[in-house]
Amino acid sequence: MNSLNLLKIAEQFGAPLYVYDAEKISSQFKRLTNAFKGVSNLRLNYAAKALSNISILRLMEHLGSGLDTVSIQEVKLGLMAGFKPESIIYTPNGVSLEEIEEASALGVQINIDNLSVLEQFGSKHPDVPVCIRINPHVMAGGNSNISVGHIDSKFGISIHQIPHLLRIVDLTQMNINGIHMHTGSDILDIDVFLYASEILFETAKNFKDLDFIDFGSGFKVPYKAGDIETNIEELGKKLTTRFNEFCTEYGKELTLAFEPGKFLVSEAGYFLAKVNVVKQTTSTVFASVDSGFNHLIRPMLYGASHQISNISNPKGRERYYSVVGYICETDTFGSNRRISEISEGDVLCFKNAGAYCFTMASNYNSRFRPPEVLWHNGKAHLIRERETFDDILRNQVDVKELFESPEKIAAK
To answer: At 358, is the secondary structure helix, strand, or coil?
Structure first.
């Protein structure tokens, strides 16, 4: 998408808002499938938590994707979006047995990541096919909050607990049809990922009736010009060779599964915000926008860097600005960034805003969450309306009778 199109969308729908480019999502999906074209059975399960708008889910289903879910709500969204139950994998963490049973009753693939629930579920439902999430104790991820494969992680069953796991499977006679891992987001070192994969292959040898091996995801995308990213093509070549070798050893053609989220939607997303105030202090020029970490929390939560440009003045002289929000706490989107000269009323564009941006938005400070727009076949389509004050109050219960004057209370 170009700046002119984005500016027109901002004028049409107002700012702040999110815009998603369907063509970029499609091209990323094709890039990943092409990287693993040497695998007989490939399944890409889009990670719904990255961006769960039902129109985005429908686009993914249209592309031929499966769906990776982490909550019963995401499962139900996926079914509403047209995904067949068998194309949905449900990988919760720390949820109740009741929620897992509810998902199982809907016919989706269950993925269990702790021994306690594995034993409970296997004892009650030994015939239901179950995938097991393994923690390979391999560190990956660009931030401690998104590194989930290390030894102190709450995610997955430790490889050191494999004997216990096998005992549960033997005693319950469970049907284990898949093995899964997820090391974390922003994978840079392919060799580290391949090392973790070897651990998964070794674990898979303990189970004789597998249908698939799921390698998670976490592929890094570029956040600025010249930024490093996961070399998907190199990974595809190396992992395809090793996976096909393993299938030969195993004696069965298995499905190779991934759960891309950020890789598919991050670069397709743009967040647009209008500049309210340009403020000069003794050492800094602040550009304050009509948004905050209630709409885009990743820079504050993960230290994530989003490239910021002034689409109202794209060819202007560059100056240094710190772009901040309107929340009554520190909410800095970027410090001392070189941006084309900013005036009050200009629209700034934040790139890589497709993954974990709107889905992590909130009503903090009682602010409205922004609308979402899908750019598809050269046209802008509203896929979520801007919230209103009625949305803020919708589920609140006003118990004003509890706070009547003392005189009224005494009279009663």
So the answer is: helix
